[in-house]
Specification:
2 helices, alpha+beta, 70 residues, 17% helix, elongated, three-stranded antiparallel β-sheet
Length: 70
């Protein structure tokens, strides 16, 4: 495996707008880290960044622990 492949991550993100009672809507979905298969469900779009950041360790390229589902 070359250096680029060891420092590359792929994610699949599925999001949808879910209507709640009272006419309010919220984003829902899940994000999956392709290599590990780790999937996490989300209740807001900011969680996507937290999940991805947990896999990006700029000090050494090691995988950190993904955040817990919100």
């Amino acid at each position: 495996m070359n250096s680029l492949e060891t420092n590359t991550h792929a994610f699949v993100i599925r999001i949808w707008l879910e209507e709640a009672e009272g006419g309010e809507a919220a984003w829902r979905g899940h994000i999956t880290h392709v290599l590990s298969g780790e999937r996490s469900y989300l209740k807001d779009l900011e969680y996507i960044l937290k999940f991805i950041a947990s896999y990006l360790d700029v000090t050494g390229g090691r995988q950190a622990t993904p955040p817990r589902d919100p």
